[in-house]
Amino acid sequence: MNRIYLATRSERAGHWINAVGFVLLVLSGFNIHFAREFNVFGTFNAAVAVHNMVGIAVTMNYILWWFYSVGSRRIRFYMPDRDDLAPGLIRQARFYLLGIFQGAAHPFAEGEARKFNPLQKWTYLGVMVVLFPIQIVTGLWLFYLIRGWQDATSAQLRILGVTHNMFAIMLTAFLLGHIYLATTGETPWAHFKMMFTGYSHAHGEVVPVDEGVSDEMA
Amino acid sequence: MALLASRQVKAGKAVAALGFLMLLGGIGSGAVLLNTDDVGHSPPPEDLPAALPESVLSCAACHLNPGLQPSYRDEAGRLHQGYIDADAYVGSIHFRRDMRECTDCHDGDYSRFPHPKGNPEPSCHDCHENFEEEYSDIQVAVAASVHKSGGAAGAFDCATCHSPHTMVPAREMTVREKNAGCVECHEKRYNPTGLTLEQRHAWHPQAALHLERVACIACHTQPSGTDFSFRHNIRPSSEATSDCYACHSADTKMAAYEGSFFGGRPQVYTRTQLVRAYYMSGGTRSASMDRLGLALLLLVVLGTATHGALRFVLRRRRRA
Fold this sequence. Notes:
The structure holds 2 protein chains of 2 kinds.
Chain A: E1 3-5, H1 9-33, H2 44-71, H3 86-97, H4 118-146, H5 154-181, H6 190-197, E2 199-201
Antiparallel strand pairs in A: 1-2
Helix pairs in contact in A: 1-2, 2-4, 4-5
Chain B: H1 2-35, H2 57-63, E1 71-73, E2 79-81, H3 86-91, H4 93-96, H5 131-134, H6 136-144, H7 146-149, H8 158-161, H9 175-189, H10 197-200, H11 207-213, H12 216-220, E3 258-259, E4 267-268, H13 271-277, H14 287-319
Antiparallel strand pairs in B: 1-2, 3-4
């Protein structure tokens, strides 16, 4: 069976740090927003403390991701090519809506040049380039204002708060979708295992084994 | 020996020069003092608001003088603050209602200093004829409050907190102005613990922010009844709100108050208006936005669950 080295050690570490942080942010964020109805951290203050600390940790993790991805040039896996746009997206969407139920092969096989299918590329790009930065900026700004380091008007707080909320919902929706789609591998656990071992057992078309195993920057 | 002598000469000259300079300075400042018509510390009239009537100016030297702050305590222990902020006086509701001359309220002999004893003390009743009926709810609330039923009982009347010289309707007061009355006493005159306000509120995770932006009464009174008189029923600190959710939740207590969180004109808000006007984490949520967001998440959960179930069932059928 073909084994492809898809995720480097740094990518996997970053991914799981982000994953744990993300879940904590969603839970503590919901605790802060629905203070009385969703009090999973015991107290409002505990939720705020967790949210602030984890938020800063995830922000640093996110900055490291940029350094690593650009430095190692592995950011290229996220870059859509011409085929990825309309036709690729449609093929992948058709697979999720129809093919997957008929046992069809994944339309875009992983390989040396391809880590993500077109839908993944666009989603991850959107998350990493649009959603994450907006969430980080509004989050840090709120933190800054609420700490009292700058005088805040309610108009400022409202715009920041509502934006942070809206994008939090979108990111939570992404998280749910992401976890579900991770079960659509060869077996339901295949992608999860890959994210721990770094190796993918190729599905779909047979592809050459990736020689560049030691593609790590560490 | 010669060296020592020359040093002594130098020191002597220095002392002489210093003495001469001091003499000059003394003459100079004396001349300045002699040139001053007004020996007292009354503020120059041009610093006072133009709206003040001429007659007030004769009282201004003492009573509008921030450097003098004349005050006294009566037999009941009530503090009578004799200093009046000129701008606040002009802005007060009484001044705006044409009670502008000091003698409009203060009957008696104020021609000499110190003023003779026995001048009648003005009372709210002098003008507010229906005072008892008009303010009965507030009087009941004050009587039940810690100010009237606690250790400091008796030393309070309306003017203790609401100086008639500066008072404006509550909806015109900023949070800072509202709190000034409380802070004035509890930082200085009545502070049994000896701690600063910040220290006394140190248990609160955002003490400074709340002390600055939230009215004291928002925590130190408890809403009850249909009118707003409960805001005069200041509770003992043991009954003050310490539950974050009392405000930071959908059924926020803040909706019961006239809102002014950031120095704007306060007014009573409905829940929707409160949400539109202010931001308070957890307390000013938009219910429709919450529903929209949760609906979106529910849709994703249901969508993926259906997709997954379908995948599972169809795969089994293919295998069978």
